[in-house]
Amino acid sequence: MPRHSTPPISLISLGCPKNLADLEAVVSLISNPKIVEESKAEIVLLNTCGFLKAARAEVFTTLKKLKNKKVVILGCLSNHFTPQVQKTYPQIYAVVSSANYKKIDQIIKGVAKNRRVTALSKEPIIFENPIGKSLLYQRSYAYVKIAEGCDNRCTYCLIPYLKGHFRSRKMPDILNEVKSLLKKGIKEIILVAQDCGYYGVDLYKKPSLAKLLKRIMAIGGANVPSGHFIVRVLYVYPERITDELLKTINSLKHVCKYLDIPLQHGDPEILKKMARQNNIQKTLALISKIRKRVPGIALRTSLIVGFPGETAKAFANLKTFLKKINFNHVGVFEYSRERGTPAYNFPNQLPERTKSQRRKELMLLQQQISLAKNASLIGKTLLCLFDHADYKKKHLIFRSQYLAPEIDGQIIVPFNKVKEKIHLDKFYDKFYKILIKKASPYDLEGELLRSPPRQTLPNH
Questions:
Q1: Residue-number span of the structural domain to which 50 is assigned
Q2: Which of 79, 229, 404, 443 has the most CB atoms around it within 10 Å of its CB?
């Protein structure tokens, strides 16, 4: 066992998968870290999210629970931890912005000696490539960040102010990280950025996501010790979806037939106020083209209700739009008034009660659509990856290429539907055939048709 040069450390990552990818890179820079559960930790790395008021509130709620720890602040909100805020929370020993992550080992050693450190800098103008990656969970998938920042200026969004301009990561660096993950047995590579479709425009002077996918899928041999793998792309804005990208997704067998396309709304006037693509007919034509070019593709989007000036007519247009797009997965969010964004000062701000009612109404409508989509899969066999076991409910949880982790539904296999006993530790790096038997608006239930021989399911 290595001698640990740091005291026991616990990790808390709030926010999106991009944040988790950052934390996995940070941990790789710590000398012989001893990662423990929170109650046993002396130092806690708190990776913050500052995207919405609710996310910021979660940061401070979490911070209050850590009053007996030495806390190191990381993430999107780090530059907003002023000296006054740090004075209010004496448990904060260090505040580190992303430009200073490479100093994390030295910073933690200082914190262990009761030193207080502030290492804040503006967001860099180029992508700061992580030196390594430490997988924090045993699972079949891993997130790979391909860009940082955003050049979209949506009137409701803080991301450009928090993370800076869009900057792509160099393709060789991405490929090296993917190779290292595949060698560790990861079977699903998930590419993340604020807008993956814009990848490469700054570095290579043209959209290069399709080229990146081809380069990733060309990786093989010793880099993939246990068979093939799949690649998923998250967050591609509609205006970035090119014919070349659709051709690539359709032609490469192991690229997931799945796209997450942020559409935000279905009313032209609201979209115009959001500074988003507001030609509804153009958007519908694009969706039709996507389905023709990539048959069977699963589509996901995010919608915002309660934006300033959203009239009853505008909301009715959004409901009509939801029916027309007929997506597999939809996330509905109440508009959050964020100080520092243009929309903060827009007139006709809606009451919270109206936002909540509209979200519930839209979600109920989407549940009907999702149920019909899921019911069409009954009787079909899907190739799936194992996610985790729910011992309380006695279920194994799987996902197909049509389901992204953490945001979409799941495929449930009851323990009694597993024909052979299995050992979960050896279950993450293989694909399994599951016959779908039941459907609900979010989840599917099925029977495992293929399991590895000579393995046992532990008694829990």
A1: 9-119
A2: 229
